Amino acid sequence: MRSILHTEKLCKTFSNGGLQQHVIKNLDLDIYEGDFTVVMGASGSGKSTLLYALSGMDKPTLGKVFFGEEDISAYTNDQLAVFRRKHCGFVFQSIYLLDSMNVFDNVMTGALAAQKNSPALVQRVGDRLKAVGIGEKMWQKYPNQLSGGECQRIGIVRAVINEPQLLFADEPTGSLNSAAGCDVLDLFTELHQKGQSIVMVTHDLRTALRGSRVIYLRDGSIVGEHKMPAFGTDDPAARRDRLQKFLDEMGW
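^ that's the sequence the OP posted. Answer follows.
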């Protein structure tokens, strides 16, 4: 597979009470086109910090992040904003829908950030909402009138409406109940099967099972990697056992 994103000696350091906290340490990583990479590790291992550095939401202290041949770690903040708008989609544990906008306008806002309004765009937004079970009767509702699972599905549609090359997700099922979480994971699986490149941070075994590759962080460094067949193509119990064994070896 072709590497779509890679890092060279990536470091991220924070100052805490005059002390330097090294959260990411000389990390080399490739993210491959069409892959579903899951990042795991104990609390404080640097999972979310890595996600923010890879996506251009935060700049590394040292090292480089390349998108193709472009060194995005050298970009200005304005250039990074354009990069994220053109190439990335984001899904978080907190859904961040705009309470003052209805369902349809929330998704349109994401689409209009990258392109002009058009009948084709309106049609695509409607089609994508219907595809995740959000029918026309719900489009005029507001986020506070919907369940957490419905809001997260809408958030995912907003994240992928511009067909990003990379979809980043940070604990996307963390605030959902089991049934809603499963619906959201099914949507991620469907996106991956259609070729979407995904990088997801999670602490949850059930969520990690949807990936094709699990990267394990400890103290800001990659200490292990586990590859899996595409979800649904192998025995579920064996898949879970193999991943659990890997995580046990990592000290999870």
